[in-house]
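Note on ligand handling. Small-molecule inputs were canonicalized before submission; formal charges were left as drawn, and no protonation-state enumeration was performed. Where a ligand contained multiple stereocentres, the stereochemistry in the source SMILES was retained. For flavin mononucleotide, this procedure yielded the string shown in the input block below.
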Amino acid sequence: MKSIIYYFTGTGNSLAAAKKIAGPLGDCDIVPVASFADSTGPVVPDAERVGLVCPVYFAGLPAMAATFAERLDLAAADYVFSVVTHGGGGGAAALRQLDGILRDKAGRGLDAGFAVSMPGNYIQMHDSPAGEKRDRLLEAANAELDMIAGRIGEGERGSLPNSPVVRIVRALTYPWFRSHVHGNDRKFTVSEACTSCGTCAAVCPAGNIEMVGGKPVWNHRCELCCGCIHLCPAEAIQAGSRTEGRQRYRNPSVEIAELERQREP
Ligand SMILES: Cc1cc2nc3c(=O)[nH]c(=O)nc-3n(C[C@H](O)[C@H](O)[C@H](O)COP(=O)(O)O)c2cc1C
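Structure output:
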């Protein structure tokens, strides 16, 4: 059976998860959601098994992943699954949100959905884990992803987690996130440490960063993935006053060059 996994990522966790799941599935394409951002209209997957892998934001889906899901034409799909990566919780609500979008727009929901804990990257709120703590988290996530890949390969159906409490959290916080997300970059600044390397612009899945006079300028189409902040080799990008000195993060199984290719069609 041919498979396609669409992914959205800021710091690589979701791409690493997509790659780990794709391995045992055999004939499987891994396609960035960001590569559809400049087009409109239905997305028709060229595969019978279709997956979406993305992070959890505010106990829901990243805005770009939600908009992408609305475009999916699943008429020819035999099996539809999702894996969401998160730093602590909210996966059940994000999966339920996706299931609802697909039922509304594509006329069929998820066959299976899984949430996997990975290192958190919401640097505006907290440090990312480092050292042994990070390694332990990734080791546990990898073991879980191997198991999930097996369950997807067997075509398991009906495993969609539920959490009424998390759904309440999502109802309280997610609408705020969606209405403020694109302009959040107004808080972003760049310091003298910037070397004009352009990594921030290249990795941005939203194509939101322009280099002007060798420095990044944010154009208010931000997805709040925090990739520019985490991946700047000089740690020259801050969001407000709280991110200075906080631990940066990139999933070690993903190279910067892979993150730079997200918008390529
Ligand atoms: C804006 C934002 C909001 C987030 N919200 C949540 C959340 O509600 N629950 C959670 O457990 N993790 C949350 N996280 C952490 C990410 O879901 C987690 O680190 C994810 O694995 C990052 O995936 P990526 O490396 O593919 O971008 C958030 C991260 C960001 C940047």
